[in-house]
Amino acid sequence: xxxxxxxxxLERMGDLARHVAQVARGxxxxxxxxxxxxxxxxQVVEAVNAVANDVVNLLEGHDLNLASQVLxxxxxxxxxHKETFRLMLAPSADVSGLSAQELVDITLLGRYFERFxxxxxxxxxxxxxxxxxxxxxxxxxxxxx
Length: 145
Description:
This protein is 77% helix and 0% strand. It is mainly alpha-helical and 145 residues long. The chain has helices spanning 2-27, 35-61, 64-89, 100-132. It is elongated, with a radius of gyration of 17 Å. The protein has one domain (2-132): Methane Monooxygenase Hydroxylase, Chain G, domain 1.
């Protein structure tokens, strides 16, 4: 059962990656993100790549400490997702020159990346259950059985 649920979660992660690619392709040859959002999204992409790499390694090795790392990576990604809203909604936000499409793209891309991280957490929790048989997620580092 864990394998079946993992496959559905991994499929959803792939769907979210496809959505990101569709946004980028739809704006080509222009960039999908306006200049004002690029630095923030560089950090978001770095955090998403950390989640993705950790998930791959977790699936290969079932390392419970790595599962805990996925949870921490997702926390960083969640904080960056909040920054996307601050970027657009803060009184000092420099978004007056952005088109409606650019604002929508920032919002959607932030959400796609945040959900990708959430699905990474789901994979980590399922692996933790698979290895330990314990249905309760622990956030402190664990040792492999």
